[in-house]
Amino acid sequence: MTSKLQVYFPMIKSRNEVLAEIYASEKLKEIFEGWDESSREEFLDFCTGVRGVKMLYDFCAKALLDPEIYPERLEELISLLLGMKVKILKVLPNDNSRIADESSLLLMDIVVQLEDGSIANVEIQKIGYAFPGERSACYSADLLLRQYKMVRSKATKDTFSYRQIKSVYTIVLFEKSPSEFRAFPHNYIHNFQQTSDTGLKLDLLQKFVFVSLDIYQKNNHNKGIETRLDAWLMFLSSDHPEDVIALIEKYPAFRAMYEQIYEICQNIEKVMEMFSKELYEMDRNTVRYMIDEMQNEIDRQKVEIEKKDSEINQQKSTLAEKVFELSQMSSELEQKTHALQEALKRIEELENQK
Q1: What is residue 100's predicted lDDT score, i.e. its pLDDT?
Q2: pLDDT at position 292, please?
Q3: Is 239 a member of any domain?
Q4: Residue 130 has what pLDDT?
Q5: 37-44 long-range contacts, Cβ below 8 Å, gap at least 24?
Q6: Which structural domain, as residue segments, surrounds residue 243?
Q7: Could you tell me if 80 and 130 are in contact, meaning their C-beta atoms sit under 8 angstroms apart?
Q8: Exposed / middle / buried, residue 170 (Cβ in 10 Å: 0-12, 13-18, 19+)
Q9: Residue 299 is assigned to a structural domain of this protein
């Protein structure tokens, strides 16, 4: 059976061809049968064009957006997200100071220096993790300090100026957005930069763009591809054949990137090895995501318990005050009762003396 995408990409193999190649090798057969049924079907759909190419597989994103091989692709994506034309000057090595386990959180993490000297860090996360703002702020600060050191090392004491320090852009794309972003179901691109409450204008250099691809998909349902940025977001977020076809018919330049992945798919053994790694990383990410979610729930419950404890302590304090007031009233009543009894006794003595 010919898939819809085979009409556009004739190199796509049929399901029977892929299965025949897998079962002709004991090694590939063992790998394939080690996956669960849904993973086997996902792999077959991916290789045979039943589903479109899932660009947010790790090996797909890295192959297609490598700025050292295809700088024009990442340049266009960054330009569209920042709303200004940029050109990549060079790729910078990632900072080794990152927390060791952070690598498991990122599908792609690329740092590039732009032609004007500014730095852009582009991340793609399959699952958005806890504290996205705090985390991004820390890495942005690292990049800003890194740029400062680079500029300072090339300047003399007399020639250095802070005006030479350019903006640092942190661009994060989520396949599955963190909970904070899901609270804004109609907004899928969020731009952040520091501003004054008085209107004073200062360039504090750190700028952030967060893109929720899952929220884009929900908002774009039946809307179609209207802009070049729409095309990129569709390219990165959808593996529906109908979306792929609509995209390459309106923007033929994307066709080459799909062809590149289907060429990779010709080597079934290599793709299976990469897919196995993908499944492993997805499991790690899911576990980490669940841990973060449980920790968030624990933190929320802790706050609620502390609030309840505070209310209970307040009620105890109020109750203690009431008990003290009642005790005082009881003491006063006893004194008055005693005084009344003394008065009645005195009256009775006087009457007996008559």
Answers
A1: 44
A2: 63
A3: yes
A4: 74
A5: 39/279, 43/272, 43/275, 44/15, 44/18, 44/19
A6: 52-266
A7: no
A8: buried
A9: no
Q: Are 244 and 183 in contact (CB under 8 A)?
A: no
The predicted pLDDT at position 12 comes to 92
pLDDT score of 282:
61
> Is 165 inside a domain boundary?
yes
344's CB contacts (< 8 A; 6+ apart) are: none
Stretches where the chain sits below pLDDT 50 are 1, 99-101
DSSP assignments along 240-292, one per residue:
-HHHHHHHHHH-GGGHHHHHHHHHHTT-HHHHHHHHHHHHHHHHHHHHHHHHH
Q: Give the separation between CA 255 and CA 264, rounded to whole angstroms.
A: 14
What is the count of structural domains for the chain?
A: 1
HEC per residue, 183-225: CCCCCCEEEEECCCCCCCCCCCCEEEEEEEHHHHHHHHCCCCC
What count of other Cβ atoms lies within 10 Å of the Cβ of residue 88? Answer: 18
Residue 354 has a pLDDT of: 63
Residue 278 resides in a domain? no
Partners of residue 108 on adjacent β-strands: 124
